[in-house]
Amino acid sequence: MKRLFCILGFVCVIASPALAGTLLTGQVGATGPASGDLTGNYPNPSVGNVMITDAKLATETGNTVKGNPYFGSASPIPMALTSCASATQALQYTLGATLSPGAFSCVTFGTAATQNTGVSGANLGLLNAGLTFSGADTFSNSLALTGITALGSNGAATRVCVLTSTNVLYKCGPNTAKGSVTAPTGTSSMAQVMAGLGSTITFTPASSGQVQIVLTPQSCSNTSNADGAQFQIGYGSGPAPHNQDLATSAGITTAGPTIKLVNPTTAGSIKFPCNLTLNLLGLTVGTAYWFDIAFNIVTAGTANMDAVYYTINEQ
Questions:
Q1: Contact residues for 243 (Cβ-Cβ < 8 A; gap 6+)
Q2: What is the pLDDT of residues 167-214, one digit of tens each?
Q3: Hey, what domains does the chain have and what are their CATH numbers?
């Protein structure tokens, strides 16, 4: 049976007692178990697990993701991604920044991605086919590095690129040098003097500092009958000595065996074979060294040597 129900005399409805109670108290809505994408019971159901799929999400503009870019908890927001327009560019993240669009920038690589341009603008020299640097490349900014280890073909860390205190990067791996120098002026000094080859014969260790030096004049001789001459390797890391400079001068070290030749009593200027070898340990990596021959007569005549061939190998 339907009746007339009123509240405070202002609002009246004609309905069954149960419906009138619902309408007049504001409790309008469904009751009972929820279905479809919802779970629980009306009037307060919740969204069921895995019910919101990609197809049901609202669309966003291009290069946009929705998430929380802040360090603390926060509601997700749309974020536009930084876009790099070139295949030779890559995204760079700013350390310590929140994951906002401003935290990323595009870094450009050089030709074929073999020349790497850093933020400072310093360039790293192109690599050749042997994966070694083609020369000494200087960095314009200060880098707190003492060495960069690279893997050899067998996977062992045998090749090293050395960054010196002056920020000069030398080619990877043990260094080598070879060449020749024209015959120096001879000497009539009984004290050891330098031949003056050091301005040409130079070497910079690049990995171990363990070096073998071989200096081979085409021949060695003395012009005086029954007299002789002596020859020994000298080296240093400062300015190279000149021809006839005393081997005892500051900055010069003589080392290794001394070759001594003596003419027969009836002849002079006999050309003797002459081969000087020196093995050194502990040379400073990245430091340039010069190598020379110290020579002298025994008592008379003039000591000479022909063109000098040299080979220097780092072990």
A1: 184, 185, 193, 194, 195, 196
A2: 555 555 688 999 999 999 999 999 999 999 999 999 998 888 999 999
A3: 126-173 (no CATH), 176-314 (2.60.120.760)
